[in-house]
Amino acid sequence: MRFQVLVTAAALTLGVSTSTSALAGGSNSWGTASDVLALGLPALAAGAAWAQNDSDGMKSLTYALGSTYAATTVLKKSIHATRPDGSDNESFPSGHTALAFAAARFIDKRYGADVAAYTPWLYAAAGLTGVARVQANQHRAQDVLAGGALGYATAHYFTEPVKGGQLSLMPTPGGAAVAWHRSF
């Protein structure tokens, strides 16, 4: 119950603050909306893990967000794509969108059926982050698409479902063994 209340309250807060900000108009408002979403969705993911007293989930989220941030930073410093507004050359990929999609994918994959009713809203908020970055004249469509894919893939890799098993491939002296385990 605590989990559903937290997710509902956070989703309403994010939705009201971002839509109010963006509807005010101008690229500054879209920039503010994207900032709120890029920070709010990871905070929501951390709150979801906290509400479940899920220390393994917190560790997975830390790995997912940390890896997403590191990968976007390395790519930005390597590719040198100029932003549409000309402010710098770190446009590709969108870090805001990457973090938003990493958080959405973490919640979706980790808590699955427990949050199924909220899943479309999580991805919609992550998608809105990308739209807001384009509207704020900070990114092009390919920047946010790449950022979203990077965040999604990173969180998918580092996150295990709470209720489910894990398949492992282990080397043995005679070849390899496949193992499946599930925590109860």
Write up what this structure looks like:
About 4% of the residues have low confidence. The longest helix has 26 residues. The protein has 184 residues and is mostly helical. It is 68% helix and 9% strand. The chain contains six helices and two strands, in the order H-H-H-H-H-H-E-E. The chain has a single domain, classed as Vanadium-containing Chloroperoxidase, domain 1.
- SS strand fraction: 5-15%
The major sheet is characterized as: 2 strands, antiparallel
CATH topology annotation: Vanadium-containing Chloroperoxidase, domain 1
Give me the side-by-side strand order of the main sheet.
Answer: 1-2
**Beta strands, count:** 2
Number of helical stretches of at least 4 residues:
6
CATH architecture: Up-down Bundle
pLDDT averaged over residues:
83
Helix content: 55-70%
Radius of gyration: 18 Å
CATH class descriptor name: Mainly Alpha
| Uncertain regions spanning at least 5 consecutive residues | 16-22
Structural class assignment: mainly alpha
How many domains make up the coordinates?
1
Helix and strand run:
HHHHHHEE
SSE blueprint:
Elements: H1 2-23, H2 26-51, H3 55-79, H4 95-111, H5 119-135, H6 141-158, E1 165-172, E2 175-182
Helix pairs in contact: 1-2, 1-5, 2-3, 2-4, 2-5, 3-4, 3-6, 4-5, 4-6, 5-6
Describe what is shown at a glance.
By secondary structure, the protein is mainly alpha-helical. It has 6 helices and 2 strands; from the N terminus they run ααααααββ. The chain has one domain (2-182): Vanadium-containing Chloroperoxidase, domain 1, CATH 1.20.144.
